[in-house]
Amino acid sequence: MNSAPEFPPIGKIDKAFFDQVIYPRLGAERPEVLVGPRHGMDNAIVKLAGGQVMAVTTDPLSIIPALGLKDSAWLSVHLLASDLATSGLSPAYAVLDFNLPPKMSAQDFEIYWQAMHREFERLNIAVIGGHTGRYVGCDYTIVGGGTLIAVGPENQYIAPNMAQPGDLIIVTKGAAIATTGLLARVFPETIQARFGENFLKRAEEFFEKFSVVEDALTAVSVGVRDAGVTAMHDATEGGVLGALHELATACGHGLRIEKRQIPLSEEAAKVCELFEIDPYISLSEGTLILTVRSVKAGQVLKALAPKKITAAIVGEITPEEQGLKLVDDKRIQTLTHPGEDPYWGAFWKARERGWK
Fold first, then answer.
1. How many percent of the chain have pLDDT more than 90?
2. What is 160-353's CATH topology?
3. What are phi and psi of 100, to 5 degrees?
4. DSSP letters along 331-349, please?
């Protein structure tokens, strides 16, 4: 047996670990599985009877003390719903598993659960099952895991492997959305002292942008596959450039990206500079990567505009043999996956400095 690649110090496993350890061992093969686990895929797709499919995704559930119970619940719901919405289908059902730390009180869990319920209700998602308990050895911030399910017509779902050369690539909201919002919430005094109260308020409001549910469902309203959007992927660890690399890996084609076209807000640029983070490769939940048939790209941008969702065309899908190209100030370099997200190191470094 070949020796397994090492786990990353923190965060998601990389492609090498997935390919060597997980991908060769996926249980039984079933013909109804249309889209299974692959690096860069947000959802599984299973064929049902009557021309329907089921889209499924899973993610951790978290309680982040610096965010508080209610906002942590909102974030857990939207991290799940964002992944599932990239299938092009509306999230409908939830199954939740809570493995809670013994120090969590019933009152605290009730506050968290009520906040989850309200957001699920707003998104028209029904909780259909789960498990809840407290166990020695569990602690914050990860307190369980959740699964979301959507059902829809087989000809309406999309997956990253549907992107084709010639498709244009659109990025919504911009780089370092989650990095900006989280650091503003965790280190408000430091950010306010450097940039002022109004700047801090704007940066804190980035938390409200951490979802791509509206981005995704608005984009596919134009059409899917040959009629519009061909693939979607949300940016998480590794940021915008990491998400673009994952999308290219999943679709098996090349791409060419104009880095200067990727939106970068003043808030994200300044917060990332303060914390010594490259904004293009850091946490960016809330950023959606879309590939769109070139003749439909304008319609997608037009549909997003009334929702006040910033979006820009940043490049295109190219044939595989052309590779993954990143154009930066007229320099063309190969786009590689950034690996470990710089957010984590910057966060702990700021803690060690006593930043508040």
1. 90
2. Phosphoribosyl-aminoimidazole Synthetase; Chain A, domain 2 (3.90.650)
3. -90, 150
4. EEEE-----S-HHHHHHHH
